[in-house]
């Protein structure tokens, strides 16, 4: 896809929505700006492994734009179990 964008007075440009969606660029996401012989390349930085469950969960929340209250592991495990039971019934022995 080829598209045109216009720089604002602050040097900002808007990446077309279909490209943002395709490359999963989210609001507030940091990108690397790489100079190439052909021009400028926007590139998502290589992901780093989470050092804890909390960090992984925070990153997941940002990716899905979850604005609700923070839930602990026991709560989300219970919710997942309940959803499975609703869908397939309670098959516990």
Plain-language structure description:
The protein is of the alpha+beta class and 93 residues long. A hairpin with a 2-residue loop joins strand 1 (32-36) and strand 2 (39-43). The mean pLDDT is 84. A two-stranded antiparallel ribbon has the order 1-2. The chain has two domains: 1-46, Ribbon (Pemi-like Protein 1, Chain: D), CATH 2.10.260; 53-88, no CATH class. It has helices spanning 17-22, 53-64, 73-88; strands at 32-36, 39-43. Helix content is 37%, strand content 11%. The N and C termini lie far apart (55 Å).
Topology at a glance:
Elements: H1 17-22, E1 32-36, E2 39-43, H2 53-64, H3 73-88
Q: Under CATH, the topology of the largest domain is which?
A: Pemi-like Protein 1, Chain: D
Residue share in β-strands: 5-15%
Order of helices and strands: HEEHH
Task: Output the radius of gyration.
Answer: 20 Å
- Mean pLDDT comes to 84
Instruction: Please give the count of helices.
Output: 3
Shape: elongated
- Class of the largest domain in CATH? Mainly Beta
Q: In terms of per-residue confidence, which ranges show pLDDT below 50 for 5 or more consecutive residues? A: none
Q: Identify the CATH architecture of the largest domain.
A: Ribbon
Structural class: alpha+beta
Question: How many domains would you count in the coordinates?
Answer: 2
Distance between the termini: 55 Å
How many β strands by DSSP? 2
Largest sheet: 2 strands, antiparallel
Numbering strands along the chain, what is their spatial order in the largest sheet?
A: 1-2
Estimate percent helicity. Answer: 25-40%
């Amino acid at each position: 896809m080829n598209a045109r964008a216009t720089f604002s007075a602050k040097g900002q440009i808007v990446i077309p929505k279909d490209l943002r969606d395709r490359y999963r660029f989210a609001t507030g996401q940091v990108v690397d700006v790489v100079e190439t012989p052909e021009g400028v390349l926007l590139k998502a930085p290589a992901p780093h492994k989470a050092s804890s469950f909390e960090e992984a969960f925070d990153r997941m929340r940002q990716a899905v734009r979850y604005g609700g209250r923070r839930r602990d592991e026991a709560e989300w495990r219970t919710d997942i179990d309940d959803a499975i039971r609703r869908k397939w019934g309670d098959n516990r022995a």
